[in-house]
Amino acid sequence: MAGRSLVPPVIGAEGLRRRVWLRFQDQRDFELPAGVTIVGRGDGCQLILDDPLVSRRHACFVVDDREITVKDLGSTNGVLVNGTRVDEQQVVVPGDQITIGRHNAELCWVPFSATERGPRPRERSSGRPAADTVVDDRPAGTAAPPPHPADGEATHETRMLDMLSGVAEKAFELGRGADAERILRRPLEAILARVEEGAPCEAREAADAGLLAVRLARATGQAAWIDFVIRMYAALRRLPTTAIVDELHLAVRAAPDVNLPAFRRYLEALRSAQAGFGPNDRFLLRRLEGLEGVLVS
């Protein structure tokens, strides 16, 4: 990430009212002055992000004496606020997580008046699905191509999870489990809701979601993410992957308060279907039964 070093802005006739900045996951800060700040890969941007998922002119922040707004400048991959894609523009408030390409930053400000301390009301976003992950090679000023036909929900959620998982990975590496949870919660919950409604789910999508959920359980100590895996695979009537079972054996020690009755119901359903299992599936079932022993010990 590169960008010019900016001084705190002077906003409005009353003088200095607040200092506004983006705090990236590597703990680097970038000041947002009063007015417009362009973000992208191009040399003409105030904040340059060296990332193939970032368009040349990707987004802009507008800071004035009333609010702070982030606007998508017709980028290929969009701007996410708290995991939801921005539809053209959106008001943002302190604590919002803003994702541009692989970069995730928290919006921060320090108010200089007691009346500034409360968060501003936030406009609703449409939650428009993300577009294909490609680099925007259009010259400046070139009109954007017609939008792709709307993808199905499964494609939308999978792409959203793929885009956010790279950002969450940095949070895992920094030991910031709460940040990873905030980034991943919405797409994971959307996948679970769809699966429990009986919609189809590809094996790879379930495996990716399950592995991220178990990692969240280990990073946060929240057994609800182990319950997530059990609920998802129970609804799918499948066994988890070997990688997920391996992680589960580690996660239950960090997050032991698992919903044991639900886990036992899942095991019972697997046992009733084991006549059709091959040797590998039977081995995975034995390992899950061993997990029950850890939970009750």
Secondary structure blueprint with pairings:
Blueprint: E1 2-3, E2 18-24, E3 29-31, E4 35-40, E5 47-48, E6 59-63, E7 68-72, E8 79-81, E9 84-85, E10 89-92, E11 97-100, E12 103-111, H1 153-173, H2 177-196, H3 203-220, H4 224-236, H5 242-254, H6 260-273, H7 279-296
Parallel strand pairs: 4-5
Antiparallel strand pairs: 1-5, 2-3, 2-12, 4-6, 6-7, 7-10, 8-9, 8-11, 11-12
Helix pairs in contact: 1-2, 1-3, 2-3, 3-4, 3-5, 4-6, 5-7, 6-7
The low-confidence parts are 1-17, 112-155
Strand order of the largest sheet: 1-5-4-6-7-10
Sheet-strand content, in percent, reads 15-25%
Strand segment tally = 12
> Kindly state the mean pLDDT as a whole number?
78
Which structural category do the helix and sheet elements fall into? alpha+beta
Largest sheet: 6 strands, mixed
- How large, in whole angstroms, is the Cα Rg? 22 Å
Describe the structure.
This protein is α+β, with helices and mostly antiparallel strands and 297 residues long. Helices cover 39% and strands 18% of the residues. The chain is elongated, with a radius of gyration of 22 Å.
